[in-house]
Each structure stands twice: as C-alpha cells, then as structure tokens.
Specification:
It comes from Dreissena polymorpha (Zebra mussel). By secondary structure, the protein is mostly helical. The protein contains six helices and no strands. α3 runs antiparallel to α4 and α5 packs antiparallel against α6.
Length: 111
C-alpha cells in the first residue's frame, strides 16, 4: 500500500486492499464451503441468510457469476440448508414456485 501513487484510482486501491487483506482461499474452496453450508443450531433465519450472502459474496469476488445465477444459488442453498425440516415443509410451495430469494427468506421468517 505504501508504494501506491497519490493519484491511484478507486479500483486500484480496492484491488490492492483485496490482495493484502482479502480472503486467500481458492475459488473452489469458497464455492465448496458455500454449497455445503447449513444453518447452525441456534442461528436465526436472518443470521443464516446473512452468513450465506456473505459466503456467496466472497465467491463472486473471485469469479464471475451473473446476477440471476447468484440469486438462484442463494435461494437454493438458503432453503436446503435450513435446519428445521418442519420449516422447509411449511415453505416448500414458495421455494418451488420461483419466488425470489428475498421473498422466500421473508416467508421463512414469517413461519
């Protein structure tokens, strides 16, 4: 960081920060963690969703995933990773009816 010029662009600064302080795990490792993630005991639905979003954000910083695919991945992992089978059964119709991730998350929170 000390070697950067005074007129460095925001992109250059962000790249330098990511290189120095960002996650050093490989894309495959980050994606594997995301795809195997599950809601933890005592973790609220909101906390679970936020943790999952953060994990996917780390993946998308390392590889290109279009917005539609990202939302689909988030929705599937969120619902499938829910700890409560009862909650999954109560919200299955919303999961299967192509509602967006945000709407599904809110329906799960309402249950």
């Amino acid at each position: 960081m000390l070697h950067m010029r005074a007129d460095a662009t925001v992109d250059e600064i962000m790249t330098e920060l990511e290189d120095n302080f960002g996650n050093v795990a490989s894309t495959d490792t980050l994606l594997s963690r995301f795809l195997s993630a599950e809601q933890e005991i005592g973790e609220s639905v909101t906390q679970w969703g936020l943790r999952l979003e953060k994990m996917l954000l780390q993946v998308t910083r390392k590889t290109k995933i279009d917005d539609e695919e990202r939302r689909s991945m988030l929705k599937k992992r969120f619902w499938r990773g829910l700890k409560s089978e009862e909650l999954r059964n109560a919200t299955r119709v919303h999961f299967e009816n192509n509602v967006p991730y945000e709407e599904l998350r809110n329906k799960v929170r309402e249950e």
